[in-house]
Amino acid sequence: MxxxxxxxxxxxxxxxxxxxxxxxxxxxxxxxxxxxxxGKTTTFRIIMxxxxxxxxxxxxxxxxxxxxxxxxxxxxxxxxxxxxKLTVKEQIEFYGxxxxxxxxxxxxKLDYWLERFEISSYKNRKIKELSKGxxxxxxxxxxxxxxxxxxxxxxxxxxxxxxxxxxxxxAIFELKExxxxxxxxxxxxEYIEDFCEKxxxxxxxxxxxxxxxxxxxxxxxKKNILIKGEDIDFDEIKKIKGVISVDKVKGEYExxxxxxxxxxxxxxxxxxxxxxxxxxxxxxxxxxxxxxxGGIHE
Length: 298
Hints:
Order of helices and strands: EEEHEEHEHHHEHEHEEHEHEEHEH
Strand order of the largest sheet: 6-7-8-3-9-10
CATH superfamily of the largest domain: P-loop containing nucleotide triphosphate hydrolases
Number of domains: 2
Strand content: 25-35%
Helix content: 25-40%
Oligomer: single chain
Number of strands: 14
């Protein structure tokens, strides 16, 4: 388990991380969100022991992170950090050796992951000869070759098509099932909703929203109603107090309302129409993020 407790990091007068606390349990995927410059990268560097916080503590399984424990951490960076003149095998052997693995163990695990990602034939190819998507797969393998206790994923799907995204997703869930603690960061909120049960949103280094994703969505006042039907006067629905907007999205109408109590008023307007769909749904994480973060960063 990773425990981050009250960490603060200052760069001169800039407070990059402001009294941040969270926990990531074994076998849990935790979302760390925020705009560029929100403090995510600084937090990652503190967790990995690359820089020290001015105050607070970071513990992995109850121990302060040192050089021994960093061997138990994997990190997929947003920017690729591969040595492009090396072959795939040379690259992974280099990273595995840094993590105190034997070459036999490295090669065995490399063969497994290359087969999982359907790129076994690339083992002796140079990194620079691979597509961006396949380079991203190699970067992912380099982060997990040592079977980390803690895995940090910063935009891990960059450059991947939907088929390869699924391959990486399946690998992430496999690591979760093995008990790996995972921190996931992405600007693509649908991935966060796919993976994370708990999350924290940072603005200027400070947590402005945190907790269980399900609870956050349920407690968020604004809801959406999805409607399909014939002869519905949506201009009348727009006039209802508490209706924020009405938009046509993918063949159905999305009515945004201030709170769930407005749903009954909307339904009363259309209940005698030929309705094929009427569904009150929680807002997306993307909507919540925009609502909570919008304007604060100005």
